[in-house]
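Write out the 3D structure for:
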Amino acid sequence: MNKKVICKDVFGKEYVVDVDKLEQRIGIYAVIVKDDRILLTRQWDGYSLIGGGVEKGETLEEAMRREVKEETGLDVTPGKLIYYATTFFKRNEDAVPRQSFQFYFTHTNIAGEIHNMNITESEKTYTNDVPEWVDLDRIDTINFRHSIDLKTILKAFKA
């Protein structure tokens, strides 16, 4: 009997998957907080953290710089690792199931103007607007579409 895991999509739908079917993915996410606001990307019908997959040959820091530049137009200097997690997800019913090793970093410098003109073709299928600064006292009211709860990430940020 093969081991099975439950994969979730961004809407919370669950899929039971044989572990032999999983592809592994390393993800990097930027926790960019400034003046009691967090910078989030607009995805699906809500918000998510800025970040994505680490490409072959990239360090985590290089991937963070690239992802932030792609999704926001901003240049950042990666800070410290504040959180990590392993999740299981599928983008939708027909997608490849993935085991994702996720790393969450702060930043030390930020420069540039916000835009999303550098997003990839794949990101265009679910990104629907430019990134937005969201007040931290408003996070309970937004539709957050990410595999790890935003309060968990912010608690690690404040630690």
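Strands lie at 4-8, 14-18, 23-30, 33-34, 37-43, 46-48, 50-53, 75-89, 98-111, 127-135.
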